[in-house]
Write a structure and sequence with these properties.
Blueprint lengths: L1 H33 L3 H23 L8 H26 L2 E2 L38 E3 L4 H11 L21 H9 L5 E4 L4 H9 L2 E18 L6 E2 L1 H9 L16 E2 L7 H10 L9 E6 L3 E6 L2 E2 L4 E6 H8 L4 E3 L1 E2 L6 H6 L5 E11 L5 H4 L1 H10 L2 H10 L2 E2 L4
Helix pairs in contact: 1-2, 2-3, 4-13
Length: 403
Amino acid sequence: MKGKRILLGVLGALAVGGFYGFFLFIAFVMMALSGWPVYVQHTLWFLGAVTWLAAVFGVSGLPRPKGRQVPRVLLALVLAGSGAVLLHGLWRDNLATVDDRSLLLRQYEPFAGDTKAVSLDGPASLRLEHAYDAPRLDGATALYPVYAAFVQAVYPEGDYPLYGAGKYERVTCSGTVEAYQRLIRRETDIIFAAAPSQEQLDMAAQAGMELHLTPIGREAFVFFVNSRNPVTGLTVEEIQGIYSGELTDWSQVGGRHQKIRPFQRAANSGSQSALLRLMEGKSLLEPEEEDVISAMDGIIRQVASYRNYRNAIGFSFRFYATEMVSSGEIRLLALNGVEPTRETIRDGSYPISSSFYAVTAAPKGQPALEERNPQAADFLRWILSEEGQELVERSGYVAERGD
């Protein structure tokens, strides 16, 4: 009789476990697809697993603990642990970030009624007549404001949605990594970006393509910390030491006794490529990573976006980073005693400033796009003209031409 009860209990536990587990799995998939924060998904999944165990145990027929103290203590621990996870996640999400889309690029869409894209005082000397045969444009997030201004000056007035139908759009902003890929696949004509990484050069070579770079402006590569960090400047050698792992504590560079938390960017992004060039061959630390739950792929890992912890350090380009500096939450660091300003970029005293480019691609052995396409040639010449360079300056960058 006792054996029969145990068998029935086990069968009941399997039935309840399977039925309840199926609905938990469906709920988990829906949470993942909903885009809920990872810490919320983890907390709800943990609570679901605990209730699943309780349900299975409840029908299993196994001996129950005497008294109610043990279940109450376990329940309190579960609730306390779940609350701690939620509170930590909420605090972490409340930290300021520097992320590719936090710039709210739609504010710069050309010809929009309230666009922040800058304009010339009068009509441009170049005017492209038809949008359908104007060069297709793409580029880095940090450079969208300047090439949106170019479009507003010389393209036919119309609707140029930032995120449209992919390769068929005239003007879009995929970010550095995808923009180079699209250029090499000949899905766009001109991209605006920092110099390509070695991997991007190799990718072009494998596709039988050559990249042609036209410098159109200059920008500073900057590092920033939490505004409450007492460190106000570093040397280039100290930056190399931090990102190679030789320097691990802020006290080693004049700060408080805190472990340095160095953030990086995705491989082949413009700023990550700039960091690699700055390292001069020194090995990089493994980057901060985060888990991202995907309903189809399980848990995947990606480079974590910069979060403004008190012990964090991150990097970007000056114009992009200053969108966040204005709130006072981060502070740009001086390098070798020189602050990153437009003036120090212009006179060359800031140690890490470089050109950004209008980049085209052509099959090896064939002339560059600007040599084959009159519209592209006119457009690139105009960008380097006094009017185009004025828009570079008005957008907040430093013109490549000083005349």
